[in-house]
Design a protein that fits this description.
The protein is an all-alpha fold. The chain folds into two domains: about 70 residues, Serine Threonine Protein Phosphatase 5, Tetratricopeptide repeat; about 50 residues, no CATH class. It contains eight helices and no strands. Helix 6 runs antiparallel to helix 7. The longest helix has 14 residues. The radius of gyration is 15 Å and the shape is elongated.
């Protein structure tokens, strides 16, 4: 693990580092080199298809690039690996909302809230977006 990756991981609550490809992807993400980050996270996923952290971070890179569809696909993979991960449901709800799919946004927001993370649901309630 690079020093930069270790410091950032400590600040973000510590992700499990599975490979050097993951480390390089993390560094590229931090540096804002999103295309390189995607390449490295994709390699990390090929090396370990159960690496939920690589999917999560690649999803955040896709979101930064405005590619919500790919970000949703990656978070869906995380949810398959970790079905009780409230943060992934919450983040996917936000992405569904950003892509205009309010029905799925509400569904995921409610699931996240059931799992104790109500940020997306609260946002939808405050902005009159439920039931649309």
């Amino acid at each position: 693990m690079t020093i930069k990756a270790a410091v950032c991981a400590a600040l973000l609550g510590g992700f499990a580092f599975a490979s050097s490809a993951y480390d390089l992807g993390f560094d590229a993400k931090i540096d804002g080199d999103y295309e390189t980050a995607i390449e490295h996270f994709t390699q990390a996923i090929k090396e370990d298809p159960k690496n939920a952290d690589a999917y999560t971070l690649r999803s955040s890179v896709y979101e930064s690039l405005g590619d919500y569809k790919s970000a949703i696909v990656d978070l869906s993979a995380v949810i398959k690996l970790k079905p009780d991960d409230a943060a992934s449901y919450n983040n996917r709800a936000i992405l569904y909302g950003q892509s205009g799919d309010l029905a799925n946004a509400e569904k995921d927001a409610r699931k996240a809230c059931q799992l104790k993370t109500c940020d997306a649901l609260n946002f939808m309630q405050e902005n009159g977006l439920l039931g649309k």
